[in-house]
Fold each of these.
Amino acid sequence: MDWIGVIRHGESTGNVAREVAESGGHEVIDIRQRDADVPLSEEGERQGRALGRWFAAMPREQWPDVVVASPYRRAVDTAAHALRGHPRMLVDERLRDRELGVLDLLTTHGVAARYPDEVVRRRRLGKFYYRPPGGESWADVALRLRSLLRDLDGARVLLFAHEITPFLLRYLLECVPERDMLAYAHNSTVPNGSLTSWHREDGAWVLEREFDADHLVEHGAEPTETEDATTRSA
């Protein structure tokens, strides 16, 4: 590879439900589907179509050689809107969102109310290594991303994934230290439909674009900054 980019999926109904639950002080996020089946919201569909118009206007030589999407519906549908008919569009489970185990569907308030011991354990272990019962740590997600990166074979590779992915790619590609990466994630939100990308320069990966969502505005959609529970609540 000499270029790699990651687009966060369009806004999902789960993102919207989480915002409602967190702002309302609820313990549980009202989502009926399993996480893998959560669809795009109406705004997310608009963001996906805007991505499609952006890529349609782009010279084909600037398209990625390989497109790899998380198997979760919100990522697959965003990729399909953006690059429908691309000859090498793959789905890989190693790009899936972080699994939260017993903390799934709980807000920050819900975790504190129902699992206070886990809040203490998380504080002691730190966010990167803390693994909820039945779930994954950030380090676990980094491990499967590292495995995926070894298997990618295109010169230009584009990923469609989740909010956690660009943070961990900075950790893996740029060797950003754990503390710095987590501080960066704490103070940043990845807009839905935004692009973060890197290119190789003298053998090293150099950050090229960071959470860039100008293409959405240019093609008729508004970027949203709804957060994922996987990067915030647990």
Amino acid sequence: MRIDIGQGVRLFVDVEGPGLVPDGPTMREKPTLICMHGGPGFDHSAYKPAFSQLADIAQIVYYDHRGHGRSDPRPSSEWTLDIWADDIVRLCDALGIAKPIVLGQSFGGFVAQRYIARHPGHASKVILSSTSHHMGMERKLAMFEKLGGPLARALAEAFWSDPTPASWAAYWAGCRKLYNTREPRDPEAGLRTLVREEILLHFVAGEKQGLNLLPGLARAQCPVLVLAGEDDPVCPLEDAQEIAAALPAPCSRLVSFPGVGHGAWRDDPERAFPVLREFILS
């Protein structure tokens, strides 16, 4: 469905599971987990069907960021972290969601970090999965070279320093296989993703270059779980460690996964999903 979040902006939203369930003589309200996808330029489909296993403990809301996927196209002037972060609040207002649990994967984690800074009292909990707080070029290049040799480093440097359709195509063809350490359980998942390349290139060439999300994390007012793969080339472990350190100590929890790349729930679901369940239920 497409939900109007104000001023004629419609986001594609999919909801899994009821928010109210029978519990003896009462109706019990489950927490709402909002899943924000990576990219930018991708859509929410990567979460399906893996996250369905959490539907017994939470109502799950998937959506495509403004301008992405099946959400309505929007002008490039609206492709900013501030707007995407504010859209979480707009979406919750439109759906009547109070105190959501907000999960951001990769680029979705950039959005979630900006959301913490701009709306620190809005969420009940936040999950930052395989994300970064800055460009971190040297860390990226070192990890790509470690995992894929000099060619991978060269392809990564060409794309992240000069994002064009050609450098993106070469990078994705040569480096995508280095993102994860396990063969995908669903090899056709990537084929289902709707990609808007123009958003990706716009963001990487612009706001991504000077990204600095650490200062805003000090404003966090709720528990924040930081998940990181120790073999993630694009959002290296050191970035997650710095994110966790920038959060107020009572709020911060870091869990790292050895032998895991970009998205612990992809590479080590047997360990990652119990961590997510425990955090949601805590």
Amino acid sequence: MSRTRAGRTLAAAAATALLLAAAPAAQATQSTISGKISPNKGKPGTPLALTIGFTITRENGENNTLRQVVLDFPPNAVANGAKFPSCTPEAINARRSFNSCAKGSLIGRGSLIADVPAADVFNVPGKVTLFNGAGGKSITVHIYAENPVLISQAFSAPLRKTGGRYGYKLTANIPDTLQEIADGWFAEVKRFSTTVNAKWRGRGYIEAKRCPKSGRAPIAGAFDFLREASPTSALGFVTCKP
């Protein structure tokens, strides 16, 4: 090879390397988490309504079917599940209704938006209903949607008290049948929001403990996926008035 040709080859290779280095990196799946309480100021023992929401944004064609969601809640409130009646996923799934759930076990409601790309269905609305689990050690989560297939299923999400920066951790392992809702049809949640605001015999399921001096109580979410998407996490705050 001549020096001239060799020089041109090296120059082309160098230019290609520079272009690749300058190209923006492919973005991974992103997530956000937010929360609010009402009332946002109250003495210890005040019943609270807590709203938690998260979003999942798919990038570069990744399949982001949720496999697990872990939520960390602030230490600035107390959960009184042990004082509330309960309802199990088995009771709901056996009858495909809430008729067998004890009065007072319903603790909250919410909604979700999901895509099912393989079925060419997008922005599907779903309903979320929350019940207190046995002994207050879990939350029974029921998901209902009608498109592209009928979904009505409850599952248990363990709730445990923790220490340090957060006060409680909720771990939701999504059942296989809520991941692949029909043969080859995988659901991809984009938005999810629930509000827990239950009271039973004068007590709130969530009651105020203390508001930090900063006026911001930390929350966090960690999201793991079934297929291509890498795990993602998000941090947020619940604002309150000290």
